[in-house]
Amino acid sequence: MVHMEKTRELVWSRSIESDDETYLLFLYREDFSAVFPHMIRYTLLLQDKNEIIAIFRTNNYEYSPTVPLDAESSAHRVAEEWAESLRKDPLSFLASRKMHLPPASTLLPSAVVVIQGSPRSDGNSSIMAQWVSDAAREAGKTVSVIFPDDLNIHHCIGCYRCFNTGTCTFDDDMGDVISAIQHSSLLVVCSPVYTNTVPGSLKILIDRCQAYQAAIVLVGRFKGPRGLILGVCGRRGSDNFRCLVPVLEAFMENVGIKVASHLLVDDVDESRDIATIPGLKEEVRGKVFDLLEKR
């Protein structure tokens, strides 16, 4: 996870006279190149004598090559629109800028979060997720199990607006997922191998965690949870996990999670049911106990 020094440069400041009130506009430029090459964010602040009234943020990653706009010119345009609105009808403008807080998460915080990445609710990944849950509860920890296929999660569209606010432009179940990960001490991902990598629904969840990465970059966070990767595939050989493991490791690294351990189970087409593999259940439980004790 890349940590960024929070530096910003004042581009300009202006005063706006409206009735008997004076408002101040400030435009700041921030360099996010430590996170993404050449990413620049512009922040426009409007304030009166006492408080900040409105904030607009935009970054150059938002704009596709065919769009005849850029982040800096967009910030200038919004500044002109705000100034004009304040001069014409300040009361209506100020009423329209009232900030609304996002809804709180509906999930109770849990010490252990398990992401069951398989679309099969009764498959081998589900069996491993159950073993993890049972072990965590035996250790006296609370557990939440997340099934991406059961959730309403829109795919990431690469708009990069999350680096303006720390939140995603889509308001769906992903907010609860991020909240669960944020408050956990151990994150366990159970995943089968689909075409050499993770299933599609799990990849959508991973991509949408970019909003969590953005929040960490913008506001920081305390020490992240430990990570445990549990993988299963039908064919024989560790090479079958050559794509799955890097995808999951990159996901965890991006949101500040230290991957503490892996357990990769291959050749499951032979046994069909991983519960019949001697010693596997005990090995999974042992890893969970060990990671919870080290926390």
Notes on the protein architecture:
This protein has 295 residues and is of the alpha/beta class. It folds into 2 domains: 9-96; 112-294, Rossmann fold, CATH 3.40.50. Helix content is 35%, strand content 23%. The chain contains 10 helices and 9 strands. The protein has helices at residues 71-88, 90-96, 124-138, 162-165, 174-182, 200-208, 210-219, 244-254, 268-271, 280-294; strands spanning 9-18, 21-31, 40-47, 52-59, 112-116, 143-146, 186-192, 226-232, 258-265. It has a 5-stranded parallel beta sheet with strand order 6-5-7-8-9, sandwiched between helices. A hairpin with a 2-residue loop joins strand 1 and strand 2 (21-31). Helix 1 packs across helix 2 (90-96) and helix 3 packs across helix 10. The protein is elongated, with a radius of gyration of 23 Å. The two termini are 20 Å apart.
Look at the structure and name the CATH superfamily of the largest domain. Answer: Flavodoxin domain
Helical fraction: 25-40%
**Helix/strand/pairing category:** alpha/beta
- Percent of sequence in beta strands: 15-25%
CATH hierarchy class name of the largest domain: Alpha Beta
- Major β-sheet annotation: 5 strands, parallel
Taken from the alpha-carbon principal axes, the silhouette is: elongated
The overall number of domains is 2
Distance between the termini: 20 Å
CATH architecture label of the largest domain? 3-Layer(aba) Sandwich
Spatial order of the strands in the main sheet?
6-5-7-8-9
Overall number of strands: 9
CATH fold topology of the largest domain: Rossmann fold
Run of helices and strands: EEEEHHEHEHHEHHEHEHH
Counting H and I runs of at least 4 residues, what is the number of helices?
A: 10
